[in-house]
Amino acid sequence: MLEIESTHIEELNDSMLRKLIGLLCEEELTKSHINVRKVFWGGHQNAADGGIDVRCEYEGILDDNSFIPRNKVGFQVKLCDLKPKQILTEMRDKTDELKESIQELCREKGAYILVCGKSSVTDIKYQNRIDAMKEAVRGYQGAESVCLDFMDGNRIATWVRSYPALIVWVREKISRPLQGWQAYGKWSDIHKKSYKNYILDQEKRMYDYIEDQEITILEGIQRLRNLIRNGSAIIRITGLSGVGKTRMIEALFDKQIGTDALNSSKVIYADAAENLVPSAEQMLREIIFKNAETTLIMDNCSAELHARLMAICRIQETRVSLITVEYDVKDKYTEETASFLLRPASDSAIQELLAKNYTALPFATINRIVEISGGNARLALIFAKSLSRERIRKAQCFIKDTFKTIRRVS
């Protein structure tokens, strides 16, 4: 099922663990409708950081049970465990003074949290580490007011359990994925293309059933984003196989396209054609139970499965948005679902797609492929790949024959 344990946390590398803490901070703030612009992390793990790997600042009040105890928090993220004596060394600089970044947190009544991914401590060992942290700040301004905490692998796992999309993310990073389920990534075959940017078709090839209106792809992307941002959306996207439905869904989370891209750390994806463990219905129920803001995407989702998932969403108030994708263009529009139809691509979009992925193909050949593919991007790419291989084969044969001729002449 949707589980995460301290043993999973232990398998993360340094940069993964640091990013996880940053993403968790963003999730905590988002849950309380607080802007995440002042959550910072980045750079090389071994670069000088002044004692802070992840910094989180915000205005407002979080839930009493939040893992972020103060308005200004600095996380020092370590993969290995640190014993009390090592903690003293970690918090002080080469002159044995408390690091300036930690002094600042003391003065501003913030919090300093030491995170050790491979640590697993008992209550007594936890208190020993807190005592070492208190010893490190003793005598400095604000030492009595700063919040000090130590987080081992068990507490990190407990934090992650509140956010289903991050459970999937962690398990994917350590190569222990839930069967068939994926975090944000290459859901389409974009990784097979040389040109990976999304090509925006300028023609109106998307139909919005609610508004009874033809719209452009960019207009459709913005409309989908708004529906999800407003919360608890149920969306159905249909279109013939190969017209780019999955690739468009990926674009919802692409910051280079349009405005206000969706948060890629809040999405879970699956292809309903695969053997899913847990099942789509079980996954949806678990996400709803955790009450986390999540977008669940089901590709190749039949009308029957869509109806079952929609019924689960409607049982109770939820923070989950559901997007289902299917090739059956005969799907009927229902009032409870925001339905969209994606039509085949325009000739100009297919031309651009081929020209950027197969630069060696003559323009006349590209035009011929456009003509016979009928706006189906997948079909056009298959034709182009086949022709490119044939051109290479003929070129190799020509070179081979040329060398044979040269040898005979010489």
Largest β-sheet summary: 8 strands, mixed
Number of domains: 3
Inertia-based shape: elongated
Radius of gyration equals 27 Å
Which topology of the largest domain does CATH recognise? Rossmann fold
- The sequence of SSEs as H and E is HHEEEHHEHEHHEEEHEHEHEHEEHHH
Given as residue ranges, the uncertain stretches (5+ residues, pLDDT < 50) are none
Biggest sheet: strand arrangement: 6-10-11-12-9-13-7-8
CATH architecture of the largest domain: 3-Layer(aba) Sandwich
DSSP helical segment count: 14
Number of strands: 13
N- to C-terminal separation?
72 Å
What does this structure look like?
The termini are far apart. The strands form 2 sheets. Strands 6-10-11-12-9-13-7-8 form an 8-stranded mixed beta sheet, with helices on both faces. The protein is α/β, with parallel strands linked by helices. 42% of the residues lie in helices and 15% in strands. The model has no long low-confidence stretch (mean pLDDT 89). The longest helix has 33 residues, at 377-409. The protein has 3 domains: 6-162, no CATH class; 181-343, Rossmann fold (3-Layer(aba) Sandwich), CATH 3.40.50; 348-409.
Structural features:
13 strands; 3 domains; 410 residues; alpha/beta; five-stranded mixed sheet; elongated; Rossmann fold
Q: What can be said about this structure in brief?
A:
The protein has 410 residues and is of the alpha/beta class.
